Automatic annotation (TrEMBL):
Species of provenance: Cyprinus carpio
GO biological process assignments: G protein-coupled receptor signaling pathway
Upper taxonomic lineage: Eukaryota, Metazoa, Chordata, Craniata, Vertebrata
GO molecular function, one term: olfactory receptor activity
Membrane-spanning segments: 22-45, 85-106, 118-141, 153-172
Assigned GO CC terms: membrane
UniProt-listed PROSITE patterns: G_PROTEIN_RECEP_F1_2 (PS50262)
The keyword Transmembrane helix appears for this protein: yes
Membrane topology, as annotated: Multi-pass membrane protein
Protein name, as recorded: Olfactory receptor
Annotated G-protein coupled receptors family 1 profile domain residues: 1-173
InterPro entries associated with the record: GPCR1_Superfamily_Member (IPR052921), GPCR_Rhodpsn_7TM (IPR017452), Olfact_rcpt (IPR000725)
Record Pfam families: 7tm_4 (PF13853)
Top-rank taxon: Eukaryota
């Protein structure tokens, strides 16, 4: 959003992202995240569980918890898939859409040096986006296609794919 405003409307940059707009965006994102997390917890809490309560994960997430239930979990599996796709593909789609708009706007700039400066501004952010999303999406695909059978290996892959990219942020920037 910041780069979209900075490149497409540079003269209005100080007036478009106001504190109120930023607060509304942050409140909207937090509300969506809370809703995405509350429904799976409510549905998992209603399931009947057998004697084993050992979660096969380093985090007590929805997926490993509902798999312990001794009833039909197809609805929970669909809910988990929808939640994951929304959480992963929603922001990624928004980022790609804004970068398409930015690329169109940058190609209209006459000066090659200004084009390079605009692309360079976006390149580090795009690199971080790809560095975060690609391992997470790969781990999700590996898990859903059951290509990784070992639970501990899958947990390690998922943990590394979620923690390593944010640790690289200071190095890239």
């Amino acid at each position: 959003y910041d780069r979209l405003i900075a490149i497409c409307w540079p003269l209005r940059y100080s007036t478009i992202p106001t504190n109120l707009r930023m607060l509304l965006i942050i409140a909207g994102i937090w509300s969506l995240v809370i809703l995405l997390e509350i429904f799976p917890v409510i549905f998992a809490a209603r399931l009947p569980y057998c004697s084993s309560r050992e979660v096969q994960s380093c985090c007590c997430e929805h997926g490993p918890v509902y798999k312990l239930a001794r009833t039909d979990i197809s609805y929970n599996r669909q809910l988990a898939t929808a939640k994951t796709l929304t959480a992963l593909l929603g922001p990624l789609t928004f980022i790609i859409f804004t970068y398409v708009i930015v690329v169109v706007a940058v190609t209209r700039i006459a000066s090659i040096s200004q084009r390079w400066k605009a692309f360079h501004t976006c390149l580090t952010h795009l690199l971080l986006v790809l560095l975060y999303y690609m391992p997470v999406i790969l781990a999700y695909i590996l898990g859903n296609l059951r290509l990784v059978q070992n639970v501990d290996l899958f947990t390690a892959i998922l943990t590394v794919s979620v923690t390593l990219p944010p640790m690289l942020n200071p190095i890239i920037y």
